[in-house]
Specification:
- By secondary structure, the protein is α/β, with parallel strands linked by helices.
- Helix 4 packs parallel to helix 6 and helix 5 crosses helix 8.
- The longest helix has 19 residues.
- It starts with a helix and ends with a strand.
- The structure holds adenosine-5'-triphosphate.
- Adenosine-5'-triphosphate (ATP) binds next to helix 13.
- Keywords: ATP-binding, DNA damage, DNA recombination, DNA repair, Helicase, Hydrolase, Nucleotide-binding.
- Pfam families: PIF1, Pif1_2B_dom.
- It catalyses: ATP + H2O = ADP + phosphate + H(+).
Length: 578
């Protein structure tokens, strides 16, 4: 009842406290559940049943996998048994198409095996497996064996003729510096020299262009190149790119002793044994221990392939790193400048073995897609930005202030929020439904408080009622050594807490609002930290949205409530916000 009193306004009787959206519930617990304030496995059944009304079965299986991986389920077997039927509704027709047998019938056991096989395929793309999930049934091993090593198959499935054409076209365009890096990399791959190369260059100097040319070359020769990036958003820019953590199973809390969680003999280990090249974009952003973890793991795994692999950096595999040390370095919460430098790639023991190639020419200006005046403008901005990066463009003696050029500023006014919204989102009401309009706009602010103010202002401007989702907040039992956490940390207090990178207790959404995902939910579906979407169906237990940035633009995804915990907070307990 106390929890409800925080939400139900103007109640006149005990019964009215239990009335939620016109329905009077039998008890307070049910009323709390209806508001989404409680944690219960029943939520996942309700969520899948609700989404089944509007999504395809394949989307539903993706939703099921998201629940398995990101939401804390108490009894996996039970939610599988309850939802098996809706998850398998299209399996017979899928198999009929696959085997070209229009009268094919399946027994319940076969149906279960094929459905689990589909679920396992989604999990494998995320680098996970049903084997890792407690008490979940496993697909038929014969089916899995027939499918072979799907990680390797996926890397060999490319259209080689098309890639050869792409390669020849881009190769002809490479500038001198790009070409010399290209030759060094291809030589090292062909002669298995196992070199370590670092391609540095600021934004627009054609690193991605170079990667694409090299990837096309290697894949057109039926060889394997793994493309990874430190952040999900950069990974989406690479063909079949993945984040380094998901591709190599690097632990999240990485230290000097860490290794990647890859078992000898696993599908991933076999893939690494067959790999010719790894391209790691945005390398300066990663903690040096990530590289060292991969180094140690490859030295071990590649011993089957190369003699003395344990004496060679990365076991003797050619690895290309790219990025710009001017851009974001590893984030060390409350770390000093020295801490950050010490965690960077160039403080690692591996840095000694790198050969560095530098790209200098801003190719964005020469790609022929911009007019001369636009190119001059970009060039001036580019120089200005680089000077700031070099620390040579200060407006005062204390080296603290930078003068912004007038064309990037908006005029001061009495309503700064209104002005910036008007400047960034002109004619919002006519255009808020247009994905292209939304895709190219964003307001960045240094503080979350301002983000919330801006969001509230813009949400109020948009038409429609929308829906408010409440989180269920709990103190993680393992993080406190008392049974009185309810007294110490009452729910309304937990609800009021705000953390960076984690949504507040209440999230208000309207159909058509652009949202940004804050978690790497499913790379292969293009769902990672930073993916932008437009909210579409706002169900009670899940929300569907259309992707508008990165990979898979236009496809629809359904997202359940997932559990998030702040990484480091000042409180003496760990909050679980679902
Ligand atoms: N050799 C080239 N010939 C023609 N166009 C090129 C060449 N190299 C790069 N470009 C084009 O220049 C633009 C910027 O290149 P690219 O995105 O590869 O740069 P980048 O270094 O990866 O930039 P960022 O660090 O911002 O991601 C792209 O439009 C790309 O197609």
């Amino acid at each position: 009842m106390r929890m409800l009193l925080n939400f139900v306004k103007g109640c006149t009787s005990f019964e009215s406290i239990r009335r939620i959206n016109g329905v009077t519930h039998d008890n307070y617990k049910d009323a709390c559940y209806a508001l989404g304030l409680l944690e219960d496995d029943k939520e996942w059944n309700d969520c899948l049943a609700e989404a089944a009304l509007w999504v395809t079965r394949n989307e539903l299986r993706n939703l099921f996998v998201t629940i398995l991986i990101h939401s804390q389920v108490t009894d996996y077997r039970k939610i599988w048994n309850t939802n098996f039927e809706i998850l398998s509704e299209d399996i017979i027709s899928l198999q009929r198409k696959r085997f070209r047998l229009k009268d094919l019938q399946l027994t319940k056991k076969q149906l279960e095996a094929y459905t689990l096989f589909e679920i396992e395929s989604i999990l494998l793309k995320m680098g996970k497996s049903l084997k890792d999930i407690d008490r979940m049934p496993l697909p038929d091993s014969a089916l899995l064996n027939n499918a072979g090593n799907r990680l390797i198959n996926e890397e060999l499935e490319y259209d080689k003729d098309a890639l050869k054409i792409v390669h020849d076209q881009s190769f002809a365009l490479l500038n001198a510096r790009q070409k010399s890096a290209y030759e060094a990399i291809i030589n090292s791959v062909e002669k298995e020299e196992g070199r370590l190369l670092f391609i540095s260059g600021h934004g627009g100097t054609g690193k991605t262009f170079l990667w694409n040319t090299i990837i096309a070359k290697i894949r057109s020769q039926s060889r394997i190149v793994l493309t990874v990036a430190t952040s999900g958003i950069a990974a989406l820019l690479l063909p079949n790119g993945r984040t380094t953590h998901s591709r190599f199973h690097i632990p999240l809390d990485v230290s000097s002793e860490s290794t990647c969680e890859i078992k000898q003999g696993s599908q991933l280990a076999e893939l690494l044994l067959k790999t010719s090249l790894i391209i790691w974009d945005e390398a300066p952003m990663a903690n040096k221990f990530c590289f060292e973890a991969l180094d140690k793991t490859l030295r071990d795994i590649l011993r089957v392939r190369y003699e003395n692999s344990s004496d060679k950096s990365f076991g003797g595999l050619t690895i290309v790193f790219g990025g710009d040390f001017h851009q974001i370095l590893p984030v060390i919460p409350k770390g000093t400048r020295a801490d950050i430098v010490d965690t960077s790639l160039n403080s690692s023991y591996l840095w000694l073995f790198f050969t560095i190639y530098e790209l200098k020419q801003n190719m964005r200006l020469y790609s022929g897609r911009v007019s001369d005046s636009e190119a001059a403008k970009i060039s001036t901005f580019d120089k200005w930005l680089l000077q700031i990066g070099d620390g040579s463009f200060y407006d005062d003696i204390n080296k603290e202030l930078i003068k912004l050029p007038p064309d990037v500023c908006i005029k001061p006014s009495n309503d700064p929020i209104g002005s910036i919204v008007e400047a960034v989102y002109p004619s919002l009401l006519q255009k808020y439904n247009d994905p292209t309009y939304l895709k190219e706009r964003a307001i960045l602010t240094p503080k979350n408080k301002m983000v919330h103010e801006l969001n509230d202002t813009i949400m109020k401007m948009l038409p429609g009622e929308g829906r408010t989702y409440f989180s269920s907040d709990n103190v993680c039992k393992a993080s406190v050594n008392t049974n009185d956490e309810d007294l110490l940390y009452p729910t309304e207090f937990l609800n009021s807490l705000r953390f960076p990178g984690i949504p507040n207790h209440d999230v208000h959404l309207k159909v058509g609002t652009p949202v940004m995902l804050l978690r790497n939910l499913n790379q292969s579906e293009g769902l990672c930290n930073g993916t932008r979407l437009i909210a579409m169906d706002l169900g009670k237990w899940s929300a569907s949205a259309n992707i508008i940035s990165g990979k898979n633009i236009g496809s629809r995804v359904t997202i359940p409530r997932i559990i998030m915990s702040p990484n480091d907070s000042k409180w003496p307990f760990k909050l679980k916000r679902r």
